[in-house]
Structures are given as structure tokens and as C-alpha cells.
Write a structure and sequence with these properties.
Layout (H helix, E strand, L loop, with lengths): L2 H8 L23 E13 L2 E12 L4 E12 L3 E8 L9 E5 L5 E3 L1 E4 L4 E6 L2 H9 L2 E7 L5 E7 L3 H6 L5 H36 L1
Antiparallel strand pairs: 1-2, 2-3, 3-4, 4-8, 5-6, 5-9, 7-8, 9-10
């Protein structure tokens, strides 16, 4: 298994929700639609290599991927450190993903691969970047879709240091995180459906 494939597989270690990201390609996502999963570390043994991923995921209330950040490190037969961001497909590739920590310098992360459901951009995880993430308060990631609309997503860096320096999540903790996320998504989906129904009822009453 090659290192890029190994990292892409690990980036998906958190049990997934069905991702239908096509409709995100045409526009942004309102804050009310977003469900976030806090920073956490997931580790796995892949052949002769130990791989850990410190990740943070953002979804819409319907389970669609908005942004996923993966801070990947492998040790053993393969030794690599990668900072990777995943966004929905339908991106304007030459723009890359703009990365900014707090009010600092804006850097461009080039895309490395686009799959049917997402595009990945990545760079080497330097010690300087790790320290900047640890010291920062907020990470802003901005991709541009095929209609030239910028889609900025803000991610808190609170909890990053504890996840990066701390132990990996145990299996039951990963399952609990996923259960909590699914419950939050269902709650937001119900709230969205209720608002839509209320609007429809109001429109009918107006007629």
C-alpha cells in the first residue's frame, strides 16, 4: 500500500455518514446547517506502519461533508507527516484551499486529488505549522467552487493541542463520538424540516 493511499484510508477512519456532496458545489453553507465534530486522534496499524490522524469534521445537518481537516503522522516502515484538508467536489482547482490561522498570513494549499465525493489538498506537516495550530484560536479554510464562489469555513483550534499530544481515542470513544454526531445531525434535520413545514403552512394560509 502506498503512503498516499494509506493516508487517504486513515482520513476516513471515523465511521462515515453517507455523503451526498453534489448540492454543496453550487454554494455556501449557513452556520445554522453546520454540525461539527471536535478534534480527536484516531490511530491504526497499517502493515508495518503506525498511523495516527488528528481530525476535525464539519457536516451539514443532512450529513453532507463541508470540510474535514486531517493531521496525519506515520511511523515505522513509512515515516511521513501530512496536513490534509478535504472539501466537497466541484471545486475550482487552480485556486487551491486558502488556509489562515487567526489573523495571520493566508497560505494556499494545492489540491492533490479529487474523488467523486471530495477533493483533497495537502502539504507537509512542519513543526512550525504544528506550533501555529497549537497557539491559534481559529482556523479558516476557504475553497472556491466551480461557479467562482468562495466557501469559507471556520474551525476552532480549541482542543487541538490536547488531541495532538494526548492518547488516541479508544474504540468505544470513537463510537460515542459518531453516535453524538448522528444525534446532532438528526436534531438539526428535524429543526430544518419543521421550519420548512411552518413556512409552507404560512404560505398556504396566506392564499
Amino acid at each position: 500500500m502506498t503512503t498516499p493511499t494509506l493516508f487517504r484510508n486513515l482520513a476516513r477512519l471515523t465511521p462515515g455518514i453517507a455523503l451526498a456532496v453534489g448540492c454543496l458545489s453550487a454554494g455556501g453553507v449557513s452556520a445554522q446547517q453546520i454540525a461539527q465534530q471536535a478534534w480527536g486522534k484516531i490511530c491504526s496499524k497499517v502493515q508495518e506502519t503506525d498511523v495516527c490522524n488528528v481530525k476535525y469534521d464539519v457536516f451539514t445537518s443532512t450529513g453532507q461533508l463541508v470540510t474535514s481537516v486531517n493531521v496525519l503522522q506515520s511511523k515505522g516502515k513509512t515515516n511521513r507527516r501530512i496536513f490534509q484538508v478535504a472539501v466537497p467536489s466541484g471545486r475550482y482547482i487552480p485556486e487551491g484551499i486558502k488556509v489562515q490561522i487567526d489573523n495571520g498570513k493566508v497560505n494556499t494549499l494545492p489540491y492533490s486529488l479529487c474523488l467523486p465525493d471530495r477533493c483533497l489538498a495537502e502539504t507537509i506537516l512542519s513543526e512550525g505549522l504544528v506550533q501555529a495550530l497549537k497557539a491559534g484560536g481559529e482556523l479558516t479554510l476557504t475553497s472556491t467552487n466551480f461557479r467562482a464562489k468562495k466557501n469559507p469555513v471556520k474551525i476552532t483550534l480549541k482542543g487541538f493541542t490536547a488531541a495532538f499530544d494526548g492518547p488516541a481515542l479508544k474504540r468505544d470513544q470513537v463510537q460515542n463520538r459518531q453516535k453524538k454526531l448522528e444525534e446532532e445531525l438528526k436534531k438539526k434535520a428535524r429543526a430544518t424540516a419543521d421550519k420548512l413545514k411552518a413556512a409552507q403552512d404560512a404560505a398556504k394560509a396566506g392564499n
